């Protein structure tokens, strides 16, 4: 492999289930992506709940995730609670395969419909969700509090699997 191949070729990625042992790592990733970060304890509690599943994104030989998707399943529906990629790994095409595999896992568990909400100004996330077939089903005005004190709407979306 040439020097340029190593620079421009993204490292191989794998997606694996994550559990409570990754709570601190997931919290750190979440903190890099959201103004209101969840604590390691919140992740530990969520990952310990029945019906909550998490998938981690691992690059190359990394043993620590660089991204993750977390969902809660209730009967035949699921809600994506959060998805995040570490800042230095964003914009490299990792979110799509992570979310696609996460959705496939939800489908294998009998989920027929997936819901999520996203800040209306999060153009990369909205584009990703739309590319994967999510449709806007509603809005929650002034739902998210921004660091500067302003509020922005949440877009609610759904996907039939």
What is the spatial order of strands in the main beta sheet? 1-2-3-4-5-7-6
Q: What is the level-2 CATH architecture name? A: 3-Layer(aba) Sandwich
Distance between the termini: 39 Å
Form type: globular
Tell me the domain tally: 1
What is the N-to-C order of secondary-structure elements (H for helix, E for strand)? HEHHEEEHEHEE
CATH class: Alpha Beta
Assembly state of the chains shown = single chain
Q: Helix content range of the residues, please? A: 25-40%
Instruction: Give the name of the CATH superfamily.
Output: Gcn5-related N-acetyltransferase (GNAT)
Topology, number of strands: 7
The proportion of residues in beta strands is: 35-45%
CATH topology, by name, is: Aminopeptidase
Could you give a short account of the major beta sheet? 7 strands, mixed
From the helix content, strand content and strand pairing, which structural class follows? alpha+beta
GO molecular function, one term: acyltransferase activity, transferring groups other than amino-acyl groups
Keywords: Acyltransferase, Transferase
Domain N-acetyltransferase: 13-161
Protein name: GNAT family N-acetyltransferase
Give me a quick take on this structure.
The protein has helices at 3-8, 23-33, 40-48, 95-108, 123-131; strands at 13-17, 52-59, 67-74, 77-85, 113-119, 135-145, 151-160. It is of the alpha+beta class.
């Amino acid at each position: 492999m040439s020097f340029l191949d190593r620079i421009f070729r993204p490292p191989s990625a794998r997606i694996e289930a994550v559990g409570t042992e990754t709570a601190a790592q997931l919290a750190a990733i979440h903190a890099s992506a959201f103004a209101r970060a969840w604590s390691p304890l919140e992740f530990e509690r969520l990952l310990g709940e029945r019906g909550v599943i998490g998938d981690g994104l691992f690059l190359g030989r990394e043993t620590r995730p660089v991204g993750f998707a977390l969902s809660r399943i209730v009967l035949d529906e699921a809600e994506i609670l959060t998805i995040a990629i570490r800042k230095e790994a964003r914009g490299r095409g990792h979110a799509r395969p992570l979310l696609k595999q996460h959705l496939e896992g939800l489908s294998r568990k009998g989920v027929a419909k997936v819901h999520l909400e996203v800040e209306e100004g999060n153009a990369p996330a909205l584009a990703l969700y739309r590319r994967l077939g999510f449709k806007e089903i509603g809005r929650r005005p002034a739902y998210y509090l921004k660091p500067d004190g302003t509020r922005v709407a949440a877009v609610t979306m759904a996907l039939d699997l």
